[in-house]
Amino acid sequence: MKEENNSIQSFENKAIRTAWNEEQEEWYFSVTDIVAALTDSADPKQYIKKMRSRDPELNARWGTICTLTAMTASDGKRYRTNAANLQGVFRIIQSIPSPKAEPLKQWLAQVGSERIEETIDPELTIDRALETYEKKGYTREWINQWLQAIQVRKELTDEWKDRGVKQGKEFAILTDEITRAWAGMSTRQYKKLYYRYFQRRKTGKPVISPKTLHSLTGLLRI
């Protein structure tokens, strides 16, 4: 599947990785994260194996319920992991005896409805993003720079598309060339600086200026 807008959403303080499929216009949820949120299992992958063994019908349909989707793991790297859409997640929930089942279903329905609302009114996406970052403690200055960087990135990629540049490898090559010409570093090296900034931000000791952060954010979102 073509994954877009990968994000992490929270259900009862449990992180659930999600990916929005633009072509199908629906959310895909990490199956491992869903199971972990429902069961509080220390080893959700092992729980899934046992769940499939005790539910033959679910096991038989597993290949159609789950889709391998690139998502970011705890080590910061992206791996292809089993993900399911709302219908698939509801089927998995049926096999898990948990008092959290109904609250999770309501949460899933809310996530789905919010995305539909945002498709109709894109400003809702911005409003919700602002609210989320403010709750996380980011300053208004940082949030404004983040929004500006998104706009810069969109203008640049729109120009590339108009000139026939294909997304994926060609975008990555151009991004890398721009980064090297601008700062003498590869995009990968700048990513390290970017994440280093956020690590230091937690301790109140940023090591990158807001101006540099603005430039980095635009590049990293390409």
Describe the protein:
The protein is of the alpha+beta class. The protein has two domains: 4-120; 127-220, no CATH class. 61% of the residues lie in helices and 15% in strands. It has ten helices and five strands; from the N terminus they run βββαααββααααααα. The chain has a five-stranded antiparallel sheet. α1 crosses α2, α2 packs across α3 and α7 (140-162) runs parallel beside α10 (210-220). Mean pLDDT is 75; it is low at 116-121 and 201-208.
Q: Helix segment count?
A: 10
Overall geometry comes to: globular
Structural class: alpha+beta
Rounded to the nearest angstrom, the distance between the terminal CA atoms is 20 Å
Radius of gyration equals 20 Å
Number of domains: 2
Q: Would you report the number of β strands?
A: 5
**Helix share bin:** 55-70%
Parts with pLDDT < 50 across at least 5 consecutive residues: 116-121, 201-208
Largest sheet: 5 strands, antiparallel
Which strand order does the major sheet show?
1-2-3-5-4
Mean pLDDT: 75
Relative strand content: 15-25%
H/E element order: EEEHHHEEHHHHHHH
Features:
222 residues; alpha+beta; 2 domains; five-stranded antiparallel β-sheet; 5 strands; globular; Bro-N domain-containing protein; BRO_N_domain
